[in-house]
Automatic annotation (TrEMBL):
One of its GO terms (molecular function) is metalloendopeptidase activity. InterPro entries: Neurolysin/TOP_dom2, Neurolysin/TOP_N, Pept_M3A_M3B. This is Thimet oligopeptidase. It comes from Linum tenue. Its cofactor is Zn(2+). GO terms for cellular component: cytoplasm. Its main location: cytoplasm. GO terms for biological process: peptide metabolic process; proteolysis. Belongs to the peptidase M3 family. The chain crosses the membrane at residues 25-47.
Length: 246
């Protein structure tokens, strides 16, 4: 009987662990949120397009670092932006009549897949660090990454290359097809298929939304408001909770 109960408990614990793993999500705001969402599709496209060696596990840079100092976070953010700019410049320089998956979409998918964990390393500390300097550095890192993502979303040269390949319809796999559609949609949501005046208005509004989102998150983190309750008002709560809160 006890053995059977033990097996049931072990099974339930295993289910709970699996459920927690499936819910392992990190929240982002602004342009970084777009980058993270696109990275999920990029990872699938990356995985489907390239065959890995049997002794290679995971993606390059797949380990999230959670103990970075404030200066290390900012340096990492700058490296992320610099590498991203380098790749996007290379893609934008491809002649439209010579666009292929390998010299355009694949480069962008590889970049996002490889930088996914690096971005998390910069942004995650703002949620959990007990150091105010680290939290502020994390917020600043997000601001820099957001600014870069927004700048990339304004690049008409990038849009033309991605759109040119999209028109060809030369999909390598379903994941890549969906990733390309997301790229085109994001460019066009930023107004690159609109007139210049309407495009400027869209970009101004997007920049304002990103700025307000970051300010809102920072205000939440900095808020030290608290409420005082008497023992009578706390009646009904577990005694352990009341002691821990006193």
């Amino acid at each position: 009987m006890e053995e059977a109960q033990g097996e049931v408990v072990a099974t339930e614990q295993s289910k709970m662990k699996s459920s927690k793993q499936r819910r392992n999500v990190i929240a982002f705001t602004g342009g970084a949120a777009v980058l993270v969402l696109a990275a999920n599709l990029a990872i699938y496209a990356f995985s489907s397009h390239r065959k890995r060696k049997s002794d290679k596990k995971g993606l390059q840079g797949s380990s999230v670092r959670i103990n970075l100092s404030a200066s290390e976070i900012l340096k990492l953010a700058d490296r992320i932006v610099a590498k991203s700019k380098q790749v996007h410049d290379a893609v934008a320089s491809v002649p439209l009549d010579k666009v292929t998956y390998e010299n355009s979409i694949s480069l962008m998918a590889d970049l996002e897949a490889e930088q996914f964990a690096l971005i998390q390393s910069c942004l995650f500390p703002k949620f959990v660090s007990d150091s105010e300097d680290v939290r502020k550095a994390s917020v600043e890192a997000e601001r820099r990454i957001d600014a870069h993502v927004l700048a990339c979303s304004k690049r008409e040269d990038l849009y033309r290359v991605v759109k040119a390949f999209s028109v060809k319809g030369d999909w390598t796999n379903p994941e890549a097809k969906q990733y390309i559609k997301c790229l085109v949609r994001e460019f066009e949501r930023n107004g690159l298929n609109l007139t210049v005046s309407k495009r400027d208005e869209v970009q101004r509004l997007r920049a304002k939304i990103d700025e307000l989102s970051l300010r809102y998150i920072q205000n939440l983190h900095d808020d030290e408001t608290y409420l005082l309750f008497s023992e009578t008002e706390l009646e009904g709560l577990p005694s352990e909770y009341c002691k821990a809160s006193s």
